[in-house]
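Try this one yourself first.
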């Protein structure tokens, strides 16, 4: 009669079962560590050890962290050389200042957003009006067959020469304006070329020049444009006025507003 150790026969099955269990555990739980002992059966009944996964740190020191560090500092201080009260108060004051500045920045951002929306709401009242913009280019269309503007002069001058150019830079008409009053001189072009024929729709530039102290000088020209709509823009640009045929311009760049 032979003696058979039943434990030694069941050991391979336990080892196979342990291998399958270990494989399932590895595939389903990636955060566990597999510390082996060399014995497959003991490894199969061993509880998995979970690895310590550190929590995400946003690198921001809040008020709770500050007081925790301060409490730790007080508990670890030398009893023969305790922390000076003035030093502790200075640390608390410094943290309060930094925290206050951070909150102030957030409030300013919120205020800028509110101001941008309020500015766009106010600018919506300009839709349908004409505004004076610092540009010598205006648009001719069926709705606006003429271009009006303002010539800025450094001093009074007898005659201001005005020339109208198309998009290619070709002069299509030249006329004179009285500049004896000086300052801002109104200028208007009826949209007709030198032959008296209406020009095509498009963009045209108004150039002005005059004699200042006996020398010819180019003069700054601003033109009126029709506001067709308003865009909100951003906190940096503010409200944007969309001008018919010209494009967008910031509300802060408007020089004047005229009647409809």
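Now uncover the answer:
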């Amino acid at each position: 009669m032979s003696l058979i150790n039943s434990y030694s026969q069941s050991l391979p099955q336990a080892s196979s079962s342990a291998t399958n269990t270990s494989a399932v555990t590895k595939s389903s739980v990636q955060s566990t560590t597999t510390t082996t002992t060399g014995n497959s059966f003991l490894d199969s009944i061993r509880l998995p050890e979970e690895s310590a996964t550190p929590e995400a740190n946003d690198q921001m020191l809040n008020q709770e962290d500050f007081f925790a560090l301060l409490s730790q500092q007080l508990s670890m201080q030398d009893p023969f050389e305790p922390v000076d009260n003035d030093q502790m108060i200075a640390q608390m004051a410094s943290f309060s200042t930094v925290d206050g500045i951070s909150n102030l920045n957030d409030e300013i951002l919120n205020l800028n957003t509110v101001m941008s929306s309020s500015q766009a709401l106010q600018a919506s009242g300009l839709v349908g009006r004409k505004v004076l913009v610092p540009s010598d280019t205006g648009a001719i269309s069926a709705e606006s067959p003429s271009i009006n503007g303002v010539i800025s002069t450094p001093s009074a001058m007898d005659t201001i020469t005005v020339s109208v150019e198309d998009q290619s830079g070709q002069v299509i008409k030249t006329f004179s304006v009285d500049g004896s009053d000086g300052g801002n001189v109104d200028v208007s072009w009826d949209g007709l070329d030198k032959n008296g024929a209406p020009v095509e729709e498009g963009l045209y530039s108004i150039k002005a020049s005059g004699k200042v102290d006996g020398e010819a000088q180019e003069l700054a020209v601003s033109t009126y444009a029709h506001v067709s709509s308003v865009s909100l823009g951003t906190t940096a640009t503010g409200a944007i006025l969309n001008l018919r045929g010209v494009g967008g311009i910031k509300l802060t760049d408007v020089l004047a507003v005229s009647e409809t």
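Discussion: The mean pLDDT is 76. Helices lie at 6-28, 40-44, 63-75, 85-123.
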